[in-house]
UniProtKB/TrEMBL annotation:
Domain of life (superkingdom): Bacteria
Organism: Billgrantia gudaonensis
InterPro entries: AAA+_ATPase, ABC_transporter-like_ATP-bd, ABC_transporter-like_CS, ABC_transporter_ATP-binding, P-loop_NTPase
Name of the protein in its database record: ABC-2 type transport system ATP-binding protein
GO MF annotation: an example: ATP binding
Residue ranges of every copy of the ABC transporter domain listed in the record: 2-231
Record keywords: ATP-binding, Nucleotide-binding, Transport
Keyword Ligase: no
Alphabetized Pfam families for the sequence: ABC_tran (PF00005)
Keyword Magnesium: no
C-alpha cells in the first residue's frame, strides 16, 4: 500500500529528522510506528502524507509517487492529526461532509452515514462539536479523515493523554476499520498499544527505523520479565536441583533472579514449578518482586543490537 524509499528529511535549521528510511506498509494491515518523543514519527507521517517535503527519497502510495502524482496519492490517504483541531460551532454532519468536499468528491450522504454509524456518532450528527465529549471529538477527527473514502488511514498518537477506557474504545474503533479493509498506520509511545493493535511494529529512533517486526515475534523477544526472589540465607551457588530454571544469583547470593517469558501462553511462566522446587530444596523466600523491561530498556537494547 505504501512504499518509502531512501527517505531523508533535513529541516531548514539543519536538523536531520529522518535518515534514509525504507519501509513498506502492506495492504490491510495495522502498522504501529513506535518510538520515543522526537524520534521522527510525526515527521515521517507528514512526509508520507505530503505535508512536509522530503529532502531525499520518495514515497509511493498505492503506486503513486506522492510528489509527481500528488493528487492521486493524497486522495488515498486519510490523516488523523495529533491535536484536536475541531471547529466548535459546526455540527458533526457538516464538518464531516465538508472534509469530503475538500477532496473534490461528490456528495454522498450514504457514505457519511456509514462512517458516522461505524464510529457511533450517528446519534450526535446534529450536535455542534463543542457539545461533544473528548472521546467523541477524537472520533469526529477519524470520521473527517474517512469522509473521502481513503484506502489508508494515519493516526498520529490516537490515544495520547486519554484514559484507559477511552483508549480501549479507540482500539475497538480502529480494529473495526481494519476489518472493513482500511490499511492503518498509527504512531504511539505505548508498547501496550502497539502490542494490542498492530500486526507489525516499526521502531523508530533518532530518525532511523531500527526494526520492523511482526508484533507477535517482537513481543516474544521483548516480553521477558524478571522475578527477583530475596532469600533468607545467602547462597554460594545455585543448587543443582534448580538447574532446570533460568536463574542467576544476585545481591551477593541474597537473591535469585528468574527470567521468564510473560507472553508465553502454552508453557506458562514456570513460576509455580520454580517455587515448588525452591521449597523442595529447603530455600526460604523472604520477599519477591517482578519487573518488566520498560519501553526505554527495550529501545536501548534494540538500538544496541542493531548497531
Ligand atoms: N519544522 C521543524 N524544524 C526543525 N526541527 C523540527 C521541525 N519539526 C520537527 N523537528 C524536529 O524533528 C524531530 C522529530 O520530530 P517529530 O515531531 O517527528 O517526533 P515524534 O517522534 O513525532 O515525537 P513525539 O512523540 O514527541 O510527537 C524532533 O527533534 C523535532 O524537534
Amino acid at each position: 500500500m505504501i512504499r518509502v524509499e531512501g527517505l531523508s528529511k533535513t529541516f531548514a535549521d539543519g536538523f536531520q529528522a529522518l535518515k534514509d528510511i525504507d519501509l513498506t506498509i502492506r495492504r490491510g494491515e495495522i502498522f504501529a510506528l513506535l518510538g520515543p518523543n522526537g524520534a521522527g514519527k510525526t515527521t515521517l507521517i507528514s512526509v508520507i502524507c505530503g505535508l512536509v517535503n522530503a529532502s531525499q527519497g520518495r514515497v509511493l502510495v498505492d503506486g503513486h509517487d506522492n510528489v509527481l502524482d500528488y493528487r492521486a496519492a493524497r486522495q488515498r490517504i486519510g490523516l488523523v492529526p495529533q491535536e484536536l483541531t475541531n471547529e466548535a460551532f459546526v455540527t458533526v454532519w457538516d464538518t464531516v461532509s465538508f472534509s469530503r468536499g475538500l477532496f473534490g468528491k461528490p456528495k454522498d450522504p450514504a457514505h457519511i452515514e456509514k462512517v458516522l454509524r461505524a464510529l457511533t456518532l450517528w446519534e450526535k450528527r446534529h450536535n455542534r462539536l463543542l457539545e461533544l465529549s473528548g472521546g467523541m471529538k477524537r472520533r469526529v477527527l477519524i470520521a473527517k479523515a474517512l469522509a473521502h473514502e481513503p484506502d489508508v488511514l494515519f493516526l498520529d498518537e490516537p490515544t495520547a493523554g486519554v484514559d484507559v477506557e477511552l483508549r480501549r474504545e479507540m482500539w475497538e474503533v480502529v480494529r473495526g476499520l481494519r476489518d472493513q479493509g482500511v490499511t492503518i498506520i498509527l504512531t504511539t509511545h505505548y508498547i501496550e498499544e502497539a502490542e494490542e493493535m498492530a500486526d507489525r511494529i516499526g521502531v523508530i529512533r533518532n530518525g532511523e527505523i531500527v526494526l520492523v517486526e511482526n508484533t507477535h515475534a517482537l513481543m516474544q523477544q521483548l516480553g521477558s520479565k524478571e522475578l527477583t526472589l530475596h532469600l533468607h540465607e545467602a547462597l554460594e551457588r545455585i543448587p543443582p536441583a534448580l538447574s532446570g530454571h533460568a536463574l542467576t544469583l544476585a545481591e551477593e547470593g541474597h537473591a535469585l533472579v528468574y527470567t521468564y517469558d510473560a507472553t508465553s501462553q502454552q508453557d506458562g511462566t514456570g513460576i509455580s514449578g520454580l517455587l515448588a522446587d525452591l521449597e523442595a530444596v529447603g530455600l526460604q523466600v523472604k520477599d519477591l518482586h517482578t519487573r518488566q523491561s520498560s519501553l526505554e530498556d527495550i529501545f536501548v537494547s534494540l538500538v544496541r543490537e542493531h548497531r
